[in-house]
Amino acid sequence: MSEKHLENLQKGLSPVERLNLITEHAMCIGCGICRSVAKRGRIAFVPVQNGTLRPIADQSLTHGEMDRIVDICPGTRVDGLPEHEIRPDSHVDSVWGVWREIYACWSAEPAVRHQAATGGVLTGLGLYLVEGGEVDFLLHARAPDEYPTFGEQHVSRHREQVLRGSGSRYGPTATVIDIAGILDSAERAGETFAFIGTPCDVSALRNYARHDSRLDARCRYMLAMVCGGFMEPDASRRVLRRFGLEFDDVESLRYRGYGCPGPTTVRIRSGQTVRMNYLDFWGDDESTWGLPPRCKICPDGIGDAADIVAADTWDGGSPTRQGQEDDPGTNAILVRTPRGESLMNRAIDAGYLVRGPDMTCGDMNRVQPHQQARKRAAWARHEALGESGQVFPVARGLRLRRLHGDNTEAFNRREREGTAERIRMGKFSEETPVASVREDG
């Protein structure tokens, strides 16, 4: 379970083949960080034949660039919080990682709380950071115009821009694409920024910072949501067809918001709008989520490396239909670093957020049981991938082996055998990526 495993898989391959191997073994999450690692123009990041975002490399890609990509890509490496961010008085939980405080919280603005994905804490923090002048801009995701079921990277400098990025994006989203260009621009202008994204995005940025010191100098805060994964385009097609909608006819899609979690709202090009319950779109349990393989073996859905993490707070991990009717939305907040702790306190004091009751790691297990289970299962699932000659992310500082040792032998065996069976079924494979051509032009 080390770098040697991937080195052996890549022996004799060209740089382009090494990059393709990550995709072919279904470990690419579509974050886009690889495009910034290579020299400009050597990697395109585009929709491919399966409808999702993947890197396609030019033959000029070098082994040196690929070595850095392997060290940075969250499909091949995922680390916990950097050692210099951990203080002696911080707590460490085997599942939930390093934390300083855990408590309920929500946006102080009722409209923001209602519009946002859950309690609006990340949106509220984004508003506080840009309106209070603590950073010059916010780097996050929003709904795109071209691919409405996806998400796209966005730079926000004003309230309206921040609010446009509120709510969740459950489609492919390259939030950290072209981070090198963003750092170039920020350095020239003497600007700083904050980042909001998935745990994988934060992992990619933490990895990237080891190779480019400008990231830590310019990015003041890394904020994340607890992430259950995203829905692949083929899975979205299947769900939409249940409601009589065609994927290619979608003009806009809001996954949640305007309630907790709020309706999934689809507008098609003819002007028709269809609203469905969150549970109708996602199903009633994790087995129906249609996640990419990389999400199913994720070692860090809880944002181990972020300064602040926001989570949903539904008992049992899922909303009830009746409970959605009057749920105003409340986030559980894990504050991991002193920097994050200070930011939360300032945003609360400035009237952007409301602090609720303190919470425990036991509470987090109760409201996020699938995250606890996935963290405990990760080592066994990675073992199965390694034994089958598959690429998997090398994890450091995530306590996976310790959790594996705490599990029952039956649990570990079931997870290992289940992953091995999915490998035999071809679930952990993709075609070599080829750029797709949209039918409309």
Description:
- This protein has helices spanning 3-10, 15-24, 33-37, 63-72, 110-115, 121-131, 159-164, 179-189, 199-209, 214-218, 233-242, 278-282, 293-296, 338-349, 361-367, 369-387, 400-406, 409-424; strands at 43-47, 53-57, 77-79, 91-93, 97-99, 101-107, 137-142, 152-156, 193-197, 219-225, 250-254, 264-268, 273-276, 308-311, 331-335, 353-358, 394-396.
- The longest helix has 19 residues, at 369-387.
- The protein has an eight-stranded mixed sheet. The chain has a three-stranded antiparallel sheet with strand order 11-12-13. A two-stranded antiparallel ribbon has the order 1-2.
- It is 37% helix and 18% strand.
- It is built from 18 helices and 17 strands.
- Strand 4 and strand 5 (97-99) form a beta hairpin.
- The protein is α/β, with parallel strands linked by helices.
- The protein is globular.
- The N and C termini lie far apart (45 Å).
- The protein folds into two domains: 3-80 and 375-424, no CATH class; 91-232 and 288-369, Aspartate Aminotransferase, domain 2.
